[in-house]
Amino acid sequence: QVQLVESGGGLVQAGGSLRLSCAASGRAFGRFAMGWFRQAPGKEREFVAAISWSGGTPYYADSVKGRFTISRDNAKNTVYLQMNSRKHEDTAVYYCAASNRAGFSLAVVRQVAWYNYWGQGTQVTVSS
């Protein structure tokens, strides 16, 4: 069992920056690939970014590429999402997720079903 707790959400002005954190507890964090998703009101949960267990090969949604950076610190059991140049359309509840399934590729990390564990989410609001 893995427990995930997101933090760092809040209100930020358009163009500003924010860093989300996701702290994991339970089984060996370093064995899990980690992902960030977001869900805006009335919309489906969508992929944002993912990082492999080793910290290499990050993947990003086209909508955030060049603005967001995913990273992890296995010694601290934490994954981060640095969000720069925020846009109003980035407003959503952001979720982190963990997966120990095989086959880390863009095709699979974009799928909600590929992840075993989810956090409770943290609200991010971008004011225009």
Describe the structure.
With 128 residues, the chain is mainly beta. It has one helix and eleven strands; from the N terminus they run βββββββββαββ. The strands form two sheets. Strands 2, 4, 5, 6, 9, 10 and 11 form a seven-stranded mixed β-sheet that branches. The protein has a four-stranded antiparallel β-sheet with strand order 1-3-8-7, with no helix packed on it. The mean pLDDT is 94.
* Span of the ends, CA to CA: 40 Å
* Radius of gyration from the alpha-carbon trace, in angstroms: 13 Å
The total strand number stands at: 11
Q: How many helical elements?
A: 1
Quick one: biggest sheet?
A: 7 strands, mixed
Low-pLDDT residue intervals, each spanning 5 or more residues: none
Helical residue percent? under 10%
Topology:
Layout: E1 2-7, E2 10-13, E3 18-26, E4 33-39, E5 46-51, E6 59-60, E7 68-73, E8 78-83, E9 92-99, H1 106-109, E10 117-118, E11 122-127
Parallel strand pairs: 2-11
Antiparallel strand pairs: 1-3, 3-8, 4-5, 4-9, 5-6, 7-8, 9-10, 9-11
